[in-house]
Structure formats: structure tokens, C-alpha cells
Amino acid sequence: MKIDLAVLELTCSRFCHDLISPIGAVNNGLELLEDEQDPELVAEARALAARSARRASILLQAYRCALGNAGNQASFGFGEAIKLARDFLEGGRVTLSGIPAMSPGDLPAGWSKLLLLSVILMSETLPRGGELHLTVNGDGPTTSFILAAEGAQIVFADDYKALLSGDATAATLDARNVLAYLTGTLATRLKMKIETTQSGAGRLEYRAG
């Protein structure tokens, strides 16, 4: 097994960067509880600690499956990926819509991991908020999906297309774009291709199949 240490380091940097804020907020809330006597401020501090602890837990669960081996297991299915994706977006300005009433069946191991990682990645293209609309096509090993991002502003870095195609030589990897690289690498492993098309300033279509 070949392991690229630089990719591992960048992935850990990204993971820790996202966790620092909620964990720091938990610590701040607990510190306030130690010294504060005002009942209202105590209640606010407890609420802050609780919200932040929940956010940290959500990130850990989502990244455990999106970046870790848990997402490669056959037991990690469509329903769990959708739940983690919705939890990840909870409280933010991006919503996920278009969830099919019936989950696709006989998906290959890793397919649901790709979907979760794609939602995380695409949510970052909507810095001012918006909607990710999911369309699932087919059933079984050849199932494909589309994520259509719509919002007031789309931010899609120039190097993402190459990275999503699995071409790491076309860009300099850093903590900002390592998720795009990992998504493209996972798609290649699953023998799937990712294509993106931007329509104007407010819509980006991401197709994986």
C-alpha cells in the first residue's frame, strides 16, 4: 500500500481546522460556568457548551465516514450518508433537498461515502448560502447522482475540476483543496467520473457516475 504522507498531513490539517472552533467554544462555555453567578448567563453558557459539543460530535461522525475507513464498509448505506449530510449542514445556510423516497439498492461499498464527501465539498461552493438539490439515477452498481448547487454566489476554485478528475499533478495540494483531491481519488477507485458545469453566477451542477 502506497501512502502519501503529504496528503495525510493536509487531511489532518483540514480535519483539525474544522474541529477547533466548536471544541474551543465548548471550553469557553465551561470556563464561563466556573466563574459566572448570574442565572441567565449560566444558562447561556450551558447552551453554548451543549451546542458546540453537538457540533463537534457531528463533525467527528461525518468525517469518520467521509474520510475514514468506516465509509468504505458495506454497512454504510445511503440512508446513513444522507443523515450525516443533513447533520453536517444543520444550523448553516445550505440546505439539502431532493432526497428520494426510496433508497437505491445494491450500491457498491464506498458509493455512499462518495455522496457524503461530495455534499461536504459542494456545500463550500455556497458561501452565502443556498440549496443543494440531489438527484439519484438508476439502481445497483451503476447508480449515479447529481448535486445541483444554487445560491446567490457560487465559488468553485479553478483547480477543483482537475482534482475531481483524479489529476493531482494539475494543482498544488493544500488544506483548502485536499477534499476535492480525496473526492476525485475515491471516485476513481469506484470507477466513477465526476463532471461539473457552472451556469451563470448562481448554479453549479456536479455529476458523479
Any overview of this molecule?
There is one protein chain. The two termini are 26 Å apart. Helix 4 links the parallel strand 1 and strand 2. The model has no long low-confidence stretch (mean pLDDT 92). A five-stranded mixed beta sheet has the order 1-2-3-5-4, with helices on one face. It has a single domain, classed as Histidine kinase-like ATPase, C-terminal domain (Heat Shock Protein 90), CATH 3.30.565.10. The protein is α+β, with helices and mostly antiparallel strands and 209 residues long. Helix 4 (111-123) runs antiparallel to helix 6. The longest helix has 31 residues, at 5-35. The chain contains six helices and five strands, in the order H-H-H-E-H-E-E-H-H-E-E.
Whole-number total of structural domains: 1
Radius of gyration: 18 Å
How does the overall form come out from the CA principal axes?
A: globular
Find the count of extended strands (DSSP E, 2+ residues): 5
Uncertain stretches of 5 or more adjacent residues: none
The CATH homologous superfamily name equals Histidine kinase-like ATPase, C-terminal domain
CATH level-two architecture = 2-Layer Sandwich
Quickly name the level 1 CATH class: Alpha Beta
Cα end-to-end separation: 26 Å
